[in-house]
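Escalation from tier 1.

The customer reports that the assembly of two entities below gives different structure tokens on two consecutive runs. Tier 1 could not reproduce it. I'm attaching the input and our single run for tier 2 to review.
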Amino acid sequence: GESVGLHLPTLSVQEGDNSIINCAYSNSASDYFIWYKQESGKGPQFIIDIRSNMDKRQGQRVTVLLNKTVKHLSLQIAATQPGDSAVYFCAENSSGGYQKVTFGTGTKLQVIP
Amino acid sequence: GAGVSQSPRYKVAKRGQDVALRCDPISGHVSLFWYQQALGQGPEFLTYFQNEAQLDKSGLPSDRFFAERPEGSVSTLKIQRTQQEDSAVYLCASSQSGANVLTFGAGSRLTVL
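Tier 1 run:
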């Protein structure tokens, strides 16, 4: 079936630098995208979302970019901190009457102090 | 409650045993989801409840998996005759009606020996 996918890379970033985590999705019907952060031993935690009628959305230290032409999402984290170390998942939701979310496989972010 | 609570946090079962995993969603949250997360993978959808109605169980991997939410609040995921491939973290999430953001619990880690 169609899925959101990350080819599970590990991204190592120096503390204070910016991080960029990428994600490709395949379901052209997806109209809502979410980034989740998962720390060891915890459940995924919502970071930021974006609807398909937008191409950019900013939060506190985070920005999500959406390129529907090439079905690509990215999460940018500014001034990366040790507390940002976690696995990051992109996920998608198609309008189908309820909020079924399909996750990718994740990217591990390691912040080097 | 303040968050989604899951119990037990850790469960070790011998192959063939039945297990029951409990989820207490956030009070008032209409929607409840169960996900299965294998090591190093993203969460995979299992089933969805709206109040007490199980509206989607398309992700349940076999008829050994059963979920219920009889009073529209607490939910139980039951796995009968556990197999080694059932070893995973089982995540529960809830959301308000019509909301896209899921709040996850910390998960129940099941290890089948």
